[in-house]
């Protein structure tokens, strides 16, 4: 066996000095920048792995109190938090505006939806998760059967930057209402929003670390995903979602993933063209197109295609990106997305698409102006990949069957919309997605009782609604014997007579009518 000589004392000293120097040189903070100007909005700590682990342990210690106060106690706390946010909605909207660049009014809209979800989760948790009696069936009639949904413990939430209040709140509020404590890691682009949310909660609950904040870059998110939390809720790209799953798998930690989409809007020949064009433009351009459930593809029946294009082109002439009060949407929050948007537009035009609004020159250093391209090949990246910018591909289809086929021909499956009269609802039910709206866009996100999530590359698991509450729990089934069974089935003392009787009862309950079988 080979041996290694111990390191000389002088070498050990040099190594310690080098490690100390490297540690001293490593940054301990990061800046949040305005995407509109590049100015520093705030400076936040780079939470280390050790600090993440400590936060999780503090949260775990707080779970006892948070669960002991019960559904009613948690409802009271969440409603008081909801009141704080509501009274200061414009203050929070300013933080969202500063870090994302979105207009103040759009920020307030996002916050308003989140407030409504907090109220719904707080008000419905007891009814949907509390203990209830269920039927025990004929075979087990001597048993009283109950089911309840218990909190997992500590939930790690890794939030996005595009809707830094509404989206993570779909996990935070529902996890808290279910009885979990939460460690929240906001996007490195919107740490100030995360700080505001946690601070406002701590005004209501100051004695227990029920909701905590950790800030930082990807390393902090990885530390949270691989920590000893009991579940991870992540919103972001499919690529990062896979990394989160890989990190969580080390501890066999379950995850809920929302990973974007390539949603389409279908326009039938009997649709209200003006309403459809207005909705498509808003769903594609609002928040600079940085919306996971926003529209990126539009399939229009060939009979009304020209009318639709004329309508949406006219409406788009009044929409502009900028940082001034008259602008309809703001900058691209994440600079790395700009070359992707430009590549998609350039490829679509190079391959025969017609830019009826905007085009390659619409992509600037911080802002992207509205771009609508028609006649784009279905294998173009502008059709197959998530663009996440203020662009729309509008293609003509000969039938609604073809519109559905093209809509479903994607690895994603998050959301969608259908505009029409006679067949709109029927078409909507044929779409492979977690959510679809008819004659409106993204309406499902504002309905707290509906689950939110996708399939395929769009992820799995659900937030919002009953499914969202149960996502952060485990079911606990209990049977209590009310009287001795007629047949002692779970005993080695079971007799042949009881075996025969069991089969007779089973046949009577489930055997059905015997079929006549004739020899051929």
Automatic annotation (TrEMBL):
Cleaved signal peptide residues: none
A UniProt-annotated Pfam family: Aldedh
Ranges of biased composition (kind: Polar residues): 1-10
Keywords annotated in UniProt: Oxidoreductase
Chain spans, region Disordered: 1-32
Annotated Aldehyde dehydrogenase domain residues: 28-477
Family note: Belongs to the aldehyde dehydrogenase family.
PANTHER family: ALDEHYDE DEHYDROGENASE-RELATED (PTHR11699)
Name listed for the protein in its UniProt record: Aldehyde dehydrogenase
Organism: Mumia xiangluensis
Taxonomic placement: Bacteria, Bacillati, Actinomycetota, Actinomycetes, Propionibacteriales
């Amino acid at each position: 066996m080979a041996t290694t000589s111990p390191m000389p004392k002088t070498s050990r000293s040099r190594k310690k000095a080098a490690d100390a120097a490297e540690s001293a040189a490593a940054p301990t903070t990061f800046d949040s920048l305005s995407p509109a100007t590049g100015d520093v909005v705030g400076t936040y700590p780079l939470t280390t792995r050790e600090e993440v682990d400590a936060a999780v342990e503090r949260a775990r210690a707080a779970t006892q109190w948070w669960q002991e106060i019960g559904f009613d106690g948690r409802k009271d706390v969440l409603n008081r938090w909801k009141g704080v946010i509501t009274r200061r909605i414009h203050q929070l909207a300013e933080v969202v505006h500063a870090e994302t660049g979105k207009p103040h009014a759009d920020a307030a809209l996002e916050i308003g939806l989140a407030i409504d979800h907090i109220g719904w989760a707080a008000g419905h948790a007891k009814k949907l998760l509390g203990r209830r009696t269920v039927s025990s069936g004929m075979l087990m009639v001597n048993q009283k059967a109950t089911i309840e949904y218990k909190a997992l413990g500590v939930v790690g939430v890794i939030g996005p930057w595009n809707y830094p209040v509404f989206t993570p709140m779909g996990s935070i509020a529902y996890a808290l209402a279910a009885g979990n404590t939460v460690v929240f890691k906001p996007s490195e682009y919107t740490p100030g929003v995360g700080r505001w949310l946690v601070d406002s909660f701590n005004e209501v609950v100051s004695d227990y670390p029920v909701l905590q904040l950790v800030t930082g870059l990807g390393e902090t998110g990885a530390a949270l995903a691989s920590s000893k939390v009991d579940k991870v809720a992540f919103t972001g790209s499919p690529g990062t979602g896979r990394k989160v799953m890989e990190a969580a798998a080390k501890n066999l930690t379950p995850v809920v993933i929302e990973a974007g989409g390539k949603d389409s809007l279908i326009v039938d020949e009997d649709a209200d063209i003006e309403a459809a064009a207005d909705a498509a433009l808003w769903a594609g351009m609002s928040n600079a197109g940085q919306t996971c459930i926003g529209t990126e593809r539009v399939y229009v029946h060939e009979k009304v295609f020209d009318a639709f294009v004329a309508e949406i082109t006219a409406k788009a002439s009044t929409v502009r990106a900028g940082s001034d009060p008259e602008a309809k949407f703001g900058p691209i929050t994440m600079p790395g997305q700009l070359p992707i948007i430009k590549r998609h537009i350039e490829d679509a035009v190079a391959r025969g698409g017609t830019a009826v609004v905007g085009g390659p020159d619409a992509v600037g250093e911080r802002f992207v102006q509205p771009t609508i391209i028609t006649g784009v090949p279905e294998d173009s990246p502008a059709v197959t990949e998530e663009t996440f910018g203020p662009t729309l591909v509008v293609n003509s289809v000969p039938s609604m069957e073809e519109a559905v086929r093209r809509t479903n021909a994607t690895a994603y499956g998050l959301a969608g919309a259908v505009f029409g009269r006679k067949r709109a609802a029927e078409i909507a039910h044929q779409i492979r997605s977690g959510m679809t709206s008819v004659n409106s866009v993204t309406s499902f996100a504002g309905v707290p009782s509906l689950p939110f999530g996708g399939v395929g590359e769009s992820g799995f698991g659900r937030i919002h609604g009953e499914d969202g509450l149960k996502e952060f729990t485990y079911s606990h089934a209990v049977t209590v014997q009310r009287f001795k069974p007629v047949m002692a089935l779970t005993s080695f003392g079971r007799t042949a007579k009881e075996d025969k009787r069991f089969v007779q009862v089973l046949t009577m309950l489930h055997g059905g009518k015997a079929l006549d079988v004739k020899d051929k």
